[in-house]
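Let us work through a complete example step by step.
Step 1: write down the sequence.
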Amino acid sequence: MPGPIFCEGDVVSLRTLEKDDAEWNHELVNNPRVWQSLGMEAPVSLEETHEWIDSKNDSDAVCFVVTVDETPVGTVNMKSPYETWGIAELSYKFDPKHWGNGYATDALKTISAYAFETRRLEKLFAECFDTNPASGRALEKAGFSQEGRFKNHGFTEGERVDVLRYGLLATDWFDQE
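Step 2: predict the structure and record it as tokens.
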């Protein structure tokens, strides 16, 4: 049974990740077009997917299934915040069938609103490979700015690639509203 809707964006809804989502998430993360953009080097078993979902209940991290009209299209996550500094890292992945529809941007905006308005964090950041410009565009459309480039920091598809880091301050978030 799907988890309850936690918050809603303009187009997407974010609902809790539940054990029943394991099979869907397992297929998503093992899709070659997805796992390569995540820098994974090996397939993930269904058992590992179950363990990953279970681990989300043991931390301050939040993991949401992004839905459109109750259909899962991706996930967006906020790792456990570093409370001393008030910062947290976001990550996301989307089903290639749903790329290019603005769902990632809306999900990033929605989780950012939650992070800044409810959790009162000071800063969010996310990283992507420079070989994935669509991910960088989604972050920029959600209000993030590129803060740095880590040369040959990542490894995907048999090659070293640059990793781009994006950030968004709470003050900038509230200024754009």
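Step 3: interpret the result. The chain has a mean pLDDT of 92.
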